[in-house]
Amino acid sequence: MSTWRPIPPTPLWQRCLPSWLHTPVIVLFQLSLLGAAILLGILFFYFTLAMRYDMAEVAKLPSGTTFYDRKGIIIDAPGSSGRQLVTRQDIPDFLVKSLRAREDARFFDHGGVDIRGLLRATLRNLKDRDFTQGASTVTMQLARNSFQIREKSLHRKFLEIAITLRVEANYSKDEILTHYLNRIYFGAGAYGIEQAARTYFGKSTRALSDGECALIVGIIRGPHIFSPIRNLPAALEQRDQTLARLITMGLIDKSRRDAIAAEPVKLVSEEQRETQTSYALQAIDREFKHILEDQDIQLGGLQVRTTLDTAWQTRLEVELTRAVEDLEREKSWPHPKPASHIAGGQTTYLQYAAVTTELNTGAILALIGGRNFSDSRLDRSLSRRDLGSAFEPFVAAAAAERGKLVLPGKPIQTGRQIGPSEVERIAKRCGIAGPFLDTEDLFRGAVAATPREMSTGLAILGNKGKRSKPYLVSEIRDPKGELIYSAKPQLLPAISAAAAMDATSVLQKSSGTRCFTGATGSERDAWTLRLGPSGATAIWLGFDQPTAIAREPRLKSLLDEFVERLGNR
Q: Which fold has domain 82-273?
């Protein structure tokens, strides 16, 4: 006996499609379900991952960069603490409009992720086969900076989006805007909008003019290259691009743009700008910003280990100041004493500069660019000054490198054996850039160099002819303590070890070191070269506007006493 069963009706979609499409459609439907399940799994994974991040961190004051000496002692530097926060009421409306124009036009309309911008950037990245476009909204940038999301990858982008949605859920648009401006880096050591306003314009955020708002927003995309202190034309170009975007968005008209562009740009003078506290930190900051990209510096909380030996730096400063003050106390001293200065960072009183370089690495152990950083920020360790007889060790090195006899105290006779061009060639290999005279006057020291160059050259002589590039930053770690940069000194041969040893024979022995002290023939510049067991120190004394210092014998005796007090290093 058979049982009758009704035949189920054919689904409408199968009746509407030819039979040969039935199987592909079923497969496609199953794949869609699988894709949806995978997508939901990915969303759940990144949502779970984003839940591990504490949203309270977004509102916290970000820490600045901390600098340490070679022994781990903290070096006091602006920006490491004491950042000032602004409230939404402190932020001018034109600054908000400028920020929208350059960074996030639909900031008040999207939920943290600009879908249109993201799709456009994704298509561009697929075309370029690289992450050339980021489509980051202000909220996404805030999330990235708050939680140090640095690497460029799809995982990073998905995580950033998930955290961004959480930020939007926890904070209002005004709060996001305020936290963003309080956190980001604006160049010149300025973290946050308030420090940027005071660094560049010497005023609070609420007092910024429309032109200053547009200019300061233009800095965001390239804090290093668009800083008006570093490159005013580039900063003004970014300001004008911001104004052009404001016109496109209908937020201002052309007449208003022209009026804003005509505003005079009044930057804070270098003497009033509180970005560093010493010549050494000023030099470290330059090198630090050269090493890292702007987005890395923006993260804040970086730990920078420098090569400075603060104990030796202090000792060098104290003894140099003592020697110079002893000279100025002489009854016959004919020059002004500290208190007077002229424009441009130069002074009318006696100055000095000193650099100590570690022999076997090139690490700079001490750097002094002048007597008083607050009085003058001109770094004299980079100023070229006449060498005179202080050039003799390099004349000797050139002669010895060519197998000729070194005659201590007789640089002319020593140099004549090989000629000016050969002396110039070897001096350049020792780090002395010149310019050089192509006459026998070169043997008498008719050449200029900086204290940094002289310290490098002297270090080569003390390190058996091997040269290493001088540096001030040894390593950089992120806020989690992970290493993101490490200096790797590489020694390269400059001259032979025998020639280096012969060259040092022209220096006088003193307390376990080899030294030279003396003034140039014009008595406008005095030099002390000091080659110790581990470091090479070059010291210059003189005036910013070349002037005869004092009678050479008395000056030399004071410098000799100074070298004796320094002892052995």
A: Penicillin binding protein transpeptidase fold (1.10.3810)
β partners of residue 528: 517, 539
Is residue 384 classed as helix, strand or coil in its secondary structure? coil
By percentage, how much of the chain surpasses pLDDT 90? Answer: 50
Q: From CA 104, how far away is CA 33, in angstroms rounded?
A: 35
* pLDDT tens track for 401-439: 999 999 999 999 999 999 999 999 999 999 999 889 889
The burial of 49, by beta-carbon neighbours within 10 Å (0-12 exposed, 13-18 middle, 19 or more buried), is given as middle
Residue 143: name the closest of 118, 175, 168 by CA. 168
**Beta-strand runs (E) in 371-490:** 385-386, 448-449, 466-467, 473-477, 483-486
Residue 38 to residue 29: CA distance in whole angstroms: 14
Reported confidence tier of residue 521, pLDDT bands at 50, 70, 90: confident
Hey, is 461 helix, strand or coil? helix
Which tens digits make up the pLDDT trace of 490-510? Answer: 899 999 999 999 999 999 887
Indicate the residue type of 226: F
How many Å is the Cα radius of gyration of the chain? 32
Please report, for the chain, the start and end positions of each structural domain, with discontinuous segments joined by +: 82-273, 310-334+345-474+488-566
CA 560 to chain centre: 37
Beta strand 303-306 with 66-68 is parallel
Residue 165 CA to residue 149 CA, distance in Å, equals: 15
Report the candidate in 340, 126, 100 with the shortest Cα–Cα distance to residue 220. Answer: 100
310-334+345-474+488-566 folds as Beta-lactamase (3.40.710)
Three-state DSSP state, 406: coil
Query: How confident is residue 132, by pLDDT bands cut at 50, 70 and 90?
Result: very low
